[in-house]
Design goal:
Helices cover 6% and strands 51% of the residues. With 269 residues, the chain is mainly beta.
Length: 269
């Protein structure tokens, strides 16, 4: 009887060759354009999205960031950049702030992406990723068919999932900004979970609270401006429950990020 083969690969599916896995091993490298809308909602709606042991942030507990991102990403080999279908994707994600043991964290409570490898990375990082359709206006140095990242530049963004539009925004840049907002400015506090496989089970077989963030970060000049944001009801999504009570601001920035792991804050199961 032959020995069992050694299977290779960072994530599923693991094979003898090791090339079929949905994602390669970290570190992962990202370059992208971010359109961010920050607003305030009822803090109770934020509290509903914070499982134990997380609590509301002490300051501005109802602050929310809805962020569109147009990414190009790769592994250390950079081979994905020569096969762009493996490198380019879009996402839209909703971030709130929370508190754990007196420390403020950011937390992604909803996120939609348009590629399977982005979902695979989310499983590893604790992001609750789902498939969706995201579009945002791209800047270009030549103005014939694109806005510039400059005063007066106008950018649109839309988000849909399950054949239904969930959000849309229009941002008109006004002036340079020292920041790209504050809601998404902390290490992330996420739960990594796997439900129990037993028939009738209601709990999790595995659950931990983790923290992660950028191992390296570069950012271009941030811009802020006037923004209009609309959220829409859906039978399969709950984004509209985070209704817009007050717009804080709109921002645009090009960034580069390296992600290379995180840490366990608390093992829950």
């Amino acid at each position: 009887m032959s020995e069992s083969p050694e299977l290779k690969g960072f994530f599923y599916p693991r094979t003898v060759g090791g090339t079929s896995g949905i994602i390669p091993s970290p570190p992962w490298y990202y370059s992208g354009d971010l359109l961010t809308v920050e607003y305030r909602t009822n803090p109770e709606r934020v509290r509903e999205l914070l499982p134990e042991p997380l609590e509301l942030a002490d300051e501005d507990p109802g602050a929310v960031a809805l962020i569109w991102a147009d990414w190009q990403s790769c592994s250390s080999s950079r081979e994905e950049l020569l096969d762009p279908v493996r490198a380019q994707y879009k996402e839209a994600f909703v971030v709130v702030r929370c508190s754990y043991e007196g420390r403020t964290f950011s937390r992604c409570v909803y996120i939609w992406v348009d590629k399977d490898f982005a979902i695979g990375r989310g499983l590893h990082q604790g992001y609750p990723k789902k498939l969706g359709s995201m579009w945002q206006t791209r800047p270009h140095p030549f103005a014939q068919g694109a806005p510039q990242i400059a005063e007066g530049g106008m950018f649109g963004a839309t988000l849909a999932a399950g054949d239904r539009r969930l959000a849309e925004a229009v941002l008109t840049l006004r002036e340079p900004s020292e920041t790209n907002g504050f809601v998404n400015g902390h290490p992330m506090a996420h739960h990594r979970i796997y439900p129990d496989i037993a028939r009738g089970a209601t709990g999790d077989a595995y659950s931990e609270l983790i923290s992660s963030g950028a191992a390296e970060f570069e950012g271009g000049q941030a811009w802020r401006g006037d923004v209009d944001l609309r959220l829409f009801e859906s039978p399969t999504e709950e984004l509209a429950a985070l209704e817009v009570d007050e717009i804080i601001g709109g921002y645009y920035r090009q960034i580069g990020v390296v992600w290379n792991g995180g840490e366990t804050l608390e093992r829950l199961v």
